[in-house]
From TrEMBL:
CDD domains the record matches: homeodomain (cd00086)
Compositional bias (Gly residues): 26-39
4Fe-4S in keyword set: no
Acidic residues biased stretches: 53-69
Compartments, record wording: Nucleus
Gene Ontology molecular-function annotations: DNA-binding transcription factor activity, RNA polymerase II-specific; sequence-specific DNA binding
UniProt keyword annotations, A-Z: DNA-binding, Homeobox, Nucleus, Transcription, Transcription regulation
Protein's UniProt name: Homeobox domain-containing protein
Amino acid sequence: MEELGRRGPSGLELTMAVHGLSSSSGSGGGGGGGGGGGCLMRDLDMNFPPAGEMEEEYPMGSVEDEDEGGGGGSRPKKLRLSKEQSRLLEESFRQNHTLNPKQKEALATRLKLRPRQVEVWFQNRRARTKLKQTEMECEYLKRCFGSLSEENRRLQREVEELRALRMAPPTVLSPHTREPMPASALTMCPRCERVTTASASGQRHHHVRPGAVFQRSPASPFQPRQPSAAC
DNA sequence: TTGGTCAATGAGCTCT
DNA sequence: AGAGCTCATTGACCAA
């Protein structure tokens, strides 16, 4: 027996369009499944097509050893596609992820396989592609989660700091009287973005010394921060 | 022996 | 109703 084409062609063609996470949509496929499997494949045995389809021979890929007898109800030998068969299937999969009946028939004839086998190959190939895609999406979302968690921690810290500031009494001293100023007297200089004590005329302002504890005035809302590029 | 791969199956769904 | 799909699963086969 010649075992060809180890490890199927893993050159899965993957495109990730994650932003909408438009993953598949699928058919909703509710749980389904159930048992499946079963060994009741007497009448649908791929390696031994039903009489009706025998008009053409289908030398099953690399399976040419019909251990006749085979005995009981065990599964037939597993078909392994030859390199050439896999190559051709991959090629047509690249062009189209689904086949219409005509294409299927033509491809099956060309590959000396049964149309059903071509169909199954395409189904499995689509499933593999989707699986790979899902894995990639998963990785991507994990990375997103990581950076968003970090951003979240940072913002939480900032909120805590600001909350603490709000609780503390203002200790900014007036440059004129040297008395503690009420928070309402503090504003944000729109040009240099520093906390200031506006003069009565509004013409001049004094920057508060660095490190001074202060309370922001309600009249000077926080500038929205540029969100750090998470994803 | 075990774990991965992949052809094949059956159930259940959607669409025409 | 039935063709064709997805999904979950099985089992043969292979390499480590």
